[in-house]
Design goal:
This protein has 218 residues and is an alpha+beta fold. The protein is 22% helix and 32% strand. It has a seven-stranded mixed β-sheet. A hairpin with a 6-residue loop joins strand 6 and strand 7. The longest helix has 18 residues. 33% of the residues are buried. The mean pLDDT is 91.
């Protein structure tokens, strides 16, 4: 079992953080522990991350030390959660103006642009957690052949719907924002729409596949 450490975060929260590696099996246990934590009256919010959980407490000055002890124990006892997974397809136009870094990724990986697209769209990715922006999916399953470092200088504005690679991960920007990932494509599928009853398209445990489209089709 991976070792875990717990520590205070600011004045209101505690964190349980696991040592590497990051695996789907670990994420499933994190999902289950998060589900258990949100049911507690003394917990304001439990936020799953990659190999970690952040727990915001109602009365941190009196509960923090007890929460740290319980988190450590509950992690050791936790089981995997097999969520109700949905299979979602997202059409993507790779390269061009919406994916200006496709050539950068190809050159870094010693591949052609076509091979990058094929490898990236071949996988059924798993949504490990949402973060950074509302609905931004951190996806597990990117081929090691496509691991590419983030840009040395982040862009000031990355358009909503941009599909990108950052290190060992891939994801989609739901909103226009600054960003340092390598931009390889674009989708017209909205990942976050505050006007909807369910504003966020994806949730942890979903599987996602990117479907290559020709320019003007997506």
């Amino acid at each position: 079992m991976q070792r875990a450490r717990c520590y205070l975060l600011g004045e209101t929260a505690v964190v349980l953080e696991l040592e590497p590696p990051v695996t789907l099996a670990t994420q499933k246990r994190i999902w289950r522990l998060t589900q258990r934590l949100v049911e507690l009256p003394e917990v304001v919010e439990a936020i799953p991350g990659m190999n970690n959980i952040t727990v915001v407490l109602r009365s941190p000055h009196t509960l923090a030390l007890d929460a740290i002890e319980r988190l450590q124990r509950w992690w050791e006892e936790s089981e995997a959660l097999e969520p109700e997974s949905r299979a979602i397809e997202i059409p993507v136009v790779y390269g061009g103006t919406g994916g200006p870094d496709l050539r950068v990724v190809a050159d870094h990986c010693g591949l052609t642009e076509k091979q990058v697209v094929e490898l990236h769209s071949l996988v059924d990715y798993v949504v490990w957690f949402l973060g950074f922006q509302p609905g931004f999916p951190y996806l597990g399953g990117l081929s090691p052949q496509l691991h590419t470092p983030r840009r040395a200088e982040p862009r000031l504005s990355v358009p909503a719907g941009t599909v990108a690679i950052g290190g060992e991960q891939t994801g989609v920007y739901p909103l226009t924002s600054p960003g340092g990932w390598q931009l390889i494509g674009h989708t017209a599928t909205p990942l976050f729409d505050p006007g909807l009853e369910t504003p966020i398209l994806l949730r942890p445990g979903d599987t996602l596949r990117f479907i290559p489209q020709k320019e003007g089709v997506c």
